[in-house]
Amino acid sequence: MTRIAARFTTAVAAFVLAVLAGCAVTGPADTGPDLTGGRTWELYTAREGAMARYRIDPDGTLHFGGGRDAMGGRFSWSGPLTAAELDELVELIDEASWFDGPEPVGDDSGRTWALSERMGMKVRRVSVEGDTEKLREVYDLLSTASRRRYGDFLESMPKAGKQ
């Protein structure tokens, strides 16, 4: 009985060492394609009674959270941006130069904006009171893209016409 217990203990120890050794040699997880130049953007906007938060990952994934989720920094939906949407977004953000120059000055719309750009360990932030043309363009693009979260629900609805 002692020999069986010793062999069992040896087998378990060998298994544990194999698992640990296997974990030690695994590389970093594949992070997917880089479609934003390594940048992750986050946009938060609020006005009386409405809040939205968007995050765009380097692989082109759009995350959306509205209302309490937005306020709490959470996202309730995610999906891919199309190549055209991503190209337009990168162009708008690069043209705006929000992170390279003075903070933009907004109008008196009552909307608050908070933008951030993360590239590796470097994070740059901008806050704007009121709308600017470029902020509205970025918001409109992201808002339209995030409406795809309703796609499955809308497809499940009865169609008009003869059934």
SSE layout and pairing:
Blueprint: H1 2-25, E1 39-47, E2 50-56, E3 61-66, H2 68-71, E4 77-80, H3 83-96, E5 112-119, E6 122-129, H4 133-146, H5 151-156
Antiparallel strand pairs: 1-2, 1-5, 2-3, 3-4, 5-6
Helix pairs in contact: 3-4
Structure in a nutshell:
This protein has 163 residues and is of the alpha+beta class. It is 38% helix and 26% strand.
Which structural traits does this protein have?
163 residues, alpha+beta, 6-stranded antiparallel sheet, 6 strands, 38% helix
Which stretches are low in confidence, meaning pLDDT under 50 for 5 or more residues running?
5-30
Shape: globular
List SSEs in N-to-C order: HEEEHEHEEHH
* Largest sheet: number of strands, sense, barrel closure: 6 strands, antiparallel
Distance linking N and C termini: 74 Å
Strand order of the largest sheet: 4-3-2-1-5-6
Structural Rg: 24 Å
Helical percent range? 25-40%
Number of strands: 6
Question: Helical stretch count?
Answer: 5
Q: Determine the structural class based on helices, strands and strand pairing.
A: alpha+beta
Q: Which percent band covers the strand fraction?
A: 25-35%
On the 0 to 100 scale, the average pLDDT is 79
